[in-house]
Amino acid sequence: MGDLFSLVRASRLASLAVVGTAKGVGKTLVVDHLVLRAQEEGVPLGLLAGGREGAPDDRPEVYAPRGSLVATAEASLRQGEAHVEVLEVLPAAGPLGHLVVARVREPGRLGLAGPPTAAGLGLAVTRLRAHGAALVLVDGSVDRVASAAPLVTEGTVVATGAAVGGGVGEVAERTRLLLTFLGLPGVADQRLREAAVRAIHKWRVAAVDEDYRPFGLNLRTALGSGGVIAGAVEEGVKALVIAGALVDGVVEALAGMSRGPGRLKVIVPDGTHVFVGSRAWARFGRAGGKVAVLHPIRVVAVTLNPVGPDGLTLDPEELVREVARVAQPLPAFDLVLGRALNLSP
Amino acid sequence: MKELLLASTAAGLGLDKIWAMIEPASPFGREEKGRARAYLPGEEAALEEELGRVEAARRAGDDSPPVMRALVGRLGRLRDLRGSVAAAVRGAALEVVELYELKRFALISREIEELLGRLSWPLPPDLRLEAVDGVLRALDPQGTGSPGFHVGDQFSTSLARLRRRKRAAERSLEEGRREQAFAVAGRLGVKPGPGGEVVLPAGDRRVLLAREESDLLPVREAGGFLYFRLRPGARAREAEAILAHLKEQERREEARVRGKLSRAVARWAPALSHNMAALGRLDFLLARARLARETAAVRPVILPPGSGVVLREARHPGVEQDLGRSGRRFTPVSLELRPGAAVLTGPNMGGKTVALRTLGLAVAMAQLGLPVPAGHMAWSPVAFIFYGGQEEENRPGLSAFAAEVTRVREPLGRLDEAGLLLLDEFARGTNPREGRALCAAILGRLARGPSVCLLATHHSGLAELVGTAHWQTRGLRGDVLAGEDGAEGVDWLYEHMDYRLERVAPGKEAPRDALVVARLLGLDEGVVELAERYLGETAGEGERP
What single DSSP character describes residue B325? Predict the structure, then answer.
């Protein structure tokens, strides 16, 4: 089995998001590793990070090699060590101002402060590609996985590790849940998919009836409206379409419906919109609930870091085994030990 | 706009929405729009010139639409760089992004100039751009024309030399590390990871070797594994020190070059500032020309003071749009008013309000230097426009009548100025006898003044009473009046209403359509018949039929 970079290249991805199950699971380690390998292979990289509103402090810092392309806030360029050629200034107004697309002329460490929205990130990826990046890496922001949205990147690497807290079991469980959400299947029924696309353009929360007709449920968001939604979804409804976030309250209310959610399909834009705890998710699944997405996400690998932020280390052998088990058929990479485990046959 | 339009007139006429349709593409154009104001009497020459400019700009656009589109596209790319220019003048060293923006501005300026040259448009002097080639020569000394910018080696030989040395130091550091890693790998049989770490299981026989290895530094021991990191060797340490020193020198030299380039920018500051202002004027002008084209507008003709207003086939784009949405067409308004007062009558839903608003809008647009949506317009510019409309907001504690009276105080206090007063069913909120008397009194006061006043009303006989001109909307077409009974609804009314205006000769009273309209709208027949009886009995009591 080759290394992570070779796998990414073999997958023919033009853009890759690195998202984490928790803060400190080693996303930067993954990005640094990929940057180093890309440099060795002479692959021109684009570097970008998902921003978070009001939190400029935890912007990741990477080593930007000569010739790579970056998209970051003007202030980061000023403070960074690298010297760049400014190629373009995107009017993406975030808390940090304009986003500058630049080519690294003299290498060095550089803070990546990116746009907070999927649309802003998507535009930045497109522009980095246009200026010659063969592979754009998007360092996903802490506790947000929007960078993995298919609108933004073609593929995703999930970073996990001891920083999740608890033991190997907890890390594996958290990883399994995130992989489940990111790996949610697309809507197979083409007519249903078309109806859901129409519904999502028009309403925040909608339903599709047996005749594939979408209708709005007159709710601004699905947050805290679980009971209302379950009540509105009577017999004869084929699918519930949620444009925003799918949360615990909704799946719990659906799991508690008298007829059960069995024949009802819940549709969200993509897996980054699911924010459900493992217990609620399990209950929903037992009741026969199904969630599908309009835009499936392609997860290519899981990386793990046995070392936690306090230097607390989990048994690397056990961790790689357990994570590889939940990640099947995806391979799990321990970048520190330089090993990979793929349990798929 | 403020001085010309009295309280809530801009909103009442629907001018706000038309004004919002003017969309400059650049920050300079938007600022120019924010500064725009109306022309008043005494400024006819300037207004004439402005109208001529908008017309010329529009003609240029009509002649070469692709060039005009390209021009607007370039204007849309401009960003406000006045802060950077001012900083350069103050002597600050501009940042790389600022220098990039300035280079880009100079390139776009050049493109705009080139595009303007392709138009058959004798450009007014204040729209002409000054050459900023000096900025380009400074920021792009080799004249590559590439849009990107960085402080490259071409700006300084010492920067080039520093960077060469830096690259050599980087290579030497890299080689040192690789050599060391290779040596360690050879001795221990384990290859260091990308960060220079070596990880060994605690029980591994190589741990002992690793502990004795001078090139390795033990980092931590956890989970049954021992972590080591490469200890930089003498060669690597030396290269690192040199590299740090060179990077610091590079940083300083780069800042010096930016300072030098910023001084070059400062020398061109007057030309850059002029161009930003000129591009703002150009952008706002083109935005107005686009509005003129979108609304099929004509250049209005300025008449000597005291000539009144002539309007032919005028349209109200806002109302026209609303009608278009429900598949109906706007009936253009034509009328002619001399200074003094005039009365406008007509049935309910007959188009009186639309006529008043169309007139007010046309005059307001003309004095803002905009072509007007009409077949023809000629007028003497006015000192103020007042529209007292029906849908004004109710102020708390004030009845509709009180609010109306409060608002009309200002225009009535300016009797010796030539204004435009549009009064829509003035005093409708009070008792008809006194309301009629008030209307007559206002008409009487304005009848021989310099202002143009048009008062829409349901009161009959006012024009004759005061001796003013009288206009009416034609109302329901005569042929449909007979034989129609029962509820036909609003749509039927729309279809059979003739919205055109016509002069009423003295003594020819307008038809009374209120009861007909009520019947067509389905009001209980018993009520309508009773009303007709009452109308017969009260004939001659103050309000003649």
Answer: H
Residue A99, helix vs strand vs coil: strand
Give a yes or no: residue B125 inside a domain: yes
Say whether B193 and A335 touch across the interface (CB within 8 A).
Answer: yes
Residue-wise pLDDT for B191-223, tens only, equals 777 667 788 877 888 888 888 888 888 887 766
* E-assigned strand segments in A82-154: 83-94, 97-106, 108-111, 135-139
pLDDT at B475: 82
Q: What percent of chain B has pLDDT over 90?
A: 58
Q: Which secondary-structure segment (H or E) carries A229?
A: helix A226-232
Nearest to B193 among A85, A89, A336 (CB): A336
Please tell me which residue of chain A has the smallest CA distance to B220: A311
User: Is there a domain that residue B65 lies in?
Assistant: yes
**Sheet (strand A45-49) strand order:** A83-94, A97-106, A69-73, A45-49, A135-139, A15-20, A155-161, A299-305, A332-334, A339-341
Domain count, chain B: 3
Assign residue B411 the CATH number of its domain.
3.40.50.300
Tell me if chain B has a CB within 8 Å of the CB of A330: no
Q: How near does any CA of chain B get to the CA of A312, in Å?
A: 7
Find the CB nearest A313 among B193, B197, B223: B223
Predicted confidence (pLDDT) at residue A185 exceeds the cutoff of 90: yes
Contact criterion met (CB < 8 Å) for B96 and A88: no
Indicate whether B305 and B436 sit together in one domain: yes
| DSSP of B416-441 | TS--EEEEESTTTTS-HHHHHHHHHH
Residue with tokens 């083109």: B286
CB contact under 8 A, A89 and B149: no
Contacts of B78 in chain A (CB under 8 A): none
pLDDT digits (tens, 9 = 90+) for B98-110: 999 999 999 999 9
Which residues, numbered 212 to 231 in chain A, qualify as contacts with chain B under a Cβ-Cβ cut-off of 8 Å?
Answer: none
In the chain, the amino acid numbered B178 is R
Residue B431 has a pLDDT of 85
Residues of B with CB under 8 A from a CB of A: 79, 95-97, 100-101, 147-152, 163, 166, 170, 191, 193-195, 197, 199, 220, 222-225, 227, 247, 250, 254
Range of the domain at B173: 157-236
Neighbours of B404 (CB within 10 A): 23
Q: Kindly state whether residues B104 and B175 are assigned to the same domain.
A: no
Confidence check on the interface: ipTM exceeds 0.85, yes or no? no
Owner of token pair 């590079």: B250
How far is B314 from chain A, CA to nearest CA, in Å?
38
Q: Do B222 and A312 touch (CB under 8 A)?
A: yes
Residues B119 and B177 in one domain: no
- From chain A, the residues in CB contact with B149 under 8 A are 85-86
Bridge-based pairing state of the strands B216-222 and B225-230: antiparallel
In a domain, B305, yes or no: yes
